[in-house]
């Protein structure tokens, strides 16, 4: 960052921090906005709350207006995007317009840009790249170690600060670490931090959890917040404290209470997935597993192999989508298929036996169902799924699930995979040692 910042701290008068993401491509859905998520995490790590995120397209008038609006309700605005050399890169111009300021060229920035780029790229003094050298007169320049578009820190008014970043995530992160983290921590943090622990649940719905923990959901610090994903519920416990160790101490009693209430349903924490949990459980037992899949078409195998360490427990799988493959590769008798149908407990069990024997594993899971949207009947509707799990002693656990037919094909497949993994988790836990 060029120059020293001599602004007085706003710690005692913080109205709010906002993030403004700029780019029509974000509104169109062409690019996923990961910058806001990352900035939010960084702010939380230094105890700075932010209250609003806005996404806006590349329009000078609308951009100018929203900056003016934010300046009236917040102390700090962090922008990403719109700092490049093209006509639709309007961020710095809009910021100046919002406060009736002029832009001035920083000559040394043009020298730096030329040094960073090949002379073949810069072929004349009127290059559009010079646009990236224009800033309000009193703005502090934020160096961009990974790109050519600098950012800035500017106080257009006494109680309002703007920090600008380019939209390229790698550039933003380097600039944050090099210059901005310490600036925001010093100027806008009260010295506290936010620390979170997330518990993950399977086999129980968000509403059922909420009914059991109404008192916890009303806590102020730490806070407990539920989040539902397809086939999974998360409870995030967040403490605000002066240190990570103290935050962990605040969180621990709540975590232990939840673990007592929902022992059967909590499968992991933070970055754990059902697949990673299964891998670790089987590794501890020095046991292997194989899959035979029909309606999930390899999704179950993919869920395991997406996790590190899968090769230590997963030997392989067979996608037996047609009846011929079920017969030829898995040894399902034609009489079973004719009598019970491919989607049946009997066929799922035979598939599990076949894949376990063929691939020589300790455990096997087979799954067959109707994912839709076509193929259902009155007796076997869309959403009907059969799962068979066989343990090293050839004991079967058979499961029948009927998912809501309003679920789409991908949702039924994903829910089926979750059911396979969670059912296996419970079996493994009940047979520990």
Task: Please provide a written account of the structure.
- The protein is an alpha/beta fold and 433 residues long.
- It folds into three domains: 11-188, Molybdenum Cofactor Biosythetic Enzyme, Chain A, CATH 3.40.980; 193-269, 2-Layer Sandwich (Alpha-Beta Plaits); 274-430, CinA-like (Maf protein).
- 38% of the residues lie in helices and 23% in strands.
- The chain has helices at residues 24-27, 34-45, 60-73, 91-98, 107-116, 169-188, 206-212, 214-217, 244-261, 274-285, 299-305, 323-328, 334-340, 345-359, 409-430; strands spanning 17-22, 52-56, 76-80, 103-105, 134-136, 140-142, 151-157, 160-165, 193-201, 223-229, 232-241, 266-269, 289-293, 314-319, 363-369, 384-390, 396-402.
- The strands form four sheets. The protein has a six-stranded mixed sheet, sandwiched between helices. A five-stranded mixed sheet has the order 14-13-15-16-17, sandwiched between helices. Strands 10-11-9-12 form a four-stranded antiparallel sheet, sandwiched between helices.
- Mean pLDDT is 93; it is low at 1-12.
Number of strands: 17
CATH topology label of the largest domain: Molybdenum Cofactor Biosythetic Enzyme, Chain A
Q: Could you give the distance between the termini?
A: 58 Å
Strand order of the largest sheet: 2-1-3-8-7-6
What would the average pLDDT be, to the nearest integer? 93
Major sheet summary line: 6 strands, mixed
CATH class of the largest domain: Alpha Beta
CATH superfamily of the largest domain: MoaB/Mog-like domain
Query: What oligomeric assembly is this protein in?
Result: single chain
Helix content: 25-40%
Which runs of at least 5 residues are low in confidence (pLDDT < 50)?
1-12
CATH architecture of the largest domain: 3-Layer(aba) Sandwich
| Structural class determined from secondary elements | alpha/beta
Q: What is the CA-based Rg, rounded?
A: 28 Å
Overall shape: it is elongated
Total tally of structural domains: 3
β-sheet strand percentage:
15-25%
Q: Number of helix segments?
A: 15
